[in-house]
Amino acid sequence: MKLLIALWKQFKQLITEGKKSKKELLAFIAIEFNKTSKEKVIGDQCLRKWGKLVSQHKVVEGNNNMSGNERKDWKFFEDMSECLDKDVTVKPTYTAESSAQKLGLPSPSKDCNDIEEDEDDTDEA
Questions:
Q1: What is the rounded CA–CA span in Å between residue 123 and residue 41?
Q2: What pTM value is reported for the model?
Q3: C-alpha angle with apex 61: 101 to 22, nearest 5 degrees?
Q4: N or C: which end of the chain has fewer CB atoms below 10 A?
């Protein structure tokens, strides 16, 4: 697993530069993996394993971000955090509230309060 993570770190810029899809990158990583490892893998195996690593990272990070939870540790957490620091599926670049503000719209929570106040006004009229 360490080798897969290390190879992802080494070649992930190929995705961000738009030169390869995730599936293509992991097929390429499988070739590189086979050059240095006794264990032989194919791209689909790397794709499935990478998905499981990302999923486990989300579980640990989610647990650790919730107050009151006992902190979980995972031996690949730091390495995976480095790999995923700019992955929008793990850390979204914006939320609905921040995107509304960028567009000059009221935040979703403000809309709900305005609706409730408007309904109260119509009852009195």
A1: 68
A2: 0.65
A3: 80
A4: C
Whole-angstrom distance, CA of residue 9 vs CA of residue 17: 14
3 state SS of 9: helix
Statement: residue 35 has pLDDT above 60: yes
Phi and psi at residue 90, to the nearest 5°:
-100, -45
DSSP letters, 100-118, are HHHTTPPPHHHHHHHHHHH
**DSSP-assigned letters across all residues of 48-109:** HHHHHHHHHHHHHHHHHHSTTSPPP--TTHHHHHHHHTT-TTTS-S--HHHHHHHTTPPPHH
